[in-house]
Amino acid sequence: MSKTTVKTRQSVDVKSVDKLVKVLGNFDGNLQFICRELGVACYVEGMKIRVEGESDNVSVAVRALETMVKLAQTEDEIDEGRTAYCIELAKEHKEEEVERLSAGTVAVTAMGKPIKCKTVGQQAYVDAIRKNTVVFGVGPAGTGKTYLAVCMAVSALKSKQVEKIILTRPAVEAGEKLGFLPGDLQEKVDPYLRPLYDALQEMLGLETYAKLMERGAIEVAPLAYMRGRTLSGAYVILDEAQNTTREQMKMFLTRMGEGSKVIVTGDVTQIDLDGKQSGLVHATEILDGVEGIAVCKLTAKDVVRHPLVMRIIHAYEKADAQNKGE
Fold first, then answer.
1. Distance CA 198, CA 206 (A)
2. Are strands 41-45 and 48-54 parallel, antiparallel or unpaired?
3. How would you class 8 by CB atoms within 10 Å of its CB: exposed for 0-12, middle for 13-18, buried for 19 or more?
């Protein structure tokens, strides 16, 4: 006996032209995205959006649209990525979480663009950085864990909370074998730290960035070169930390000196350690709950790149779960 499909219609009252424009998106792109993703039909009727389709899908679409209306109160623009995020919240019946998003800015770029948290997970991550001395930001690519860490570091440097920013990461997977690369230390390490450089240049501008690098207020070094140092008065970011060994992670964390803040970022699905336990995985297990340390776990829901990235991550997570079940 075939399942009977229940058709229904519901409306969302947006109430203002300004909010409606943001919710609809450029050329109604956000509305079209909802229709494609959920298999519903949407119609604009004055200040209301009417949704028609299968009952369950309509309910998700309506909750997503209501969440977007709330976002429109504080956001300058709602794009396809934000729309995808609202759909994810609606599917999990967690749309009320969007109210935890702060209207404040994390930082301002050199061009004057305000940087804001785009997901509840990002908001929790930034709040943790503000409140704690050591923060682990763990999550897949595109969740903003490294970018937001750089934004917070630049804000701290500008407000003179710290004297310098130190960027580090395992240079070549776990082994840090730099000798075969041409050039001096800076040239050897540069390709591996390009994402951090790009974020710094966006926040500071090329001229200011170059001056701070020359003055030593921004320092870049492979993780192996942290050994034996005490890092005081610094904002220290360890990127790609999933490829540190347990010994490297302990060495790095114990370098911290007075007046420093440490942010450790990584993606535990991209470990290249040939059977060794990741220092990031080990550290988050034994240090979670220690006073002054926070572990923030971002998920596919926090991806703020193209919506397709979120789908790709979900597909891999599903495949991994199936493989473990076999």
1. 10
2. antiparallel
3. middle
- Give backbone dihedrals phi and psi of 9, rounded to 5 degrees, phi first: -140, 140
CA distances from 155 to 105, 150, 159 (A): 11, 9, 6
Characterise 150 by phi-psi region: left (phi > 0), alpha (psi -120 to 50), beta (else). Answer: alpha
225 alpha-carbon distance from chain centroid: 27
- Residue 83 CA: distances (Å) to CA of 21, 22, 27, 120, 300: 13, 11, 14, 14, 14
Q: Which long-range contacts (CB under 8 A, 24 or more apart) does 5-10 make?
A: 5/54, 6/54, 6/55, 7/52, 7/53, 7/54, 7/55, 8/52, 8/53, 8/54, 8/55, 8/58, 9/50, 9/51, 9/52, 9/58, 10/50, 10/51, 10/58, 10/59, 10/62
Judged on CB neighbours under 10 Å (0-12, 13-18, 19+), 213 is: middle
**Separation of alpha carbons 193 and 170, rounded Å:** 10
Structure tokens at 28: 């109604």
The pTM (predicted TM-score) of the whole model is: 0.81
pLDDT digits (tens, 9 = 90+) for 42-93: 999 999 999 999 999 999 999 999 999 998 988 878 988 889 889 988 998 8
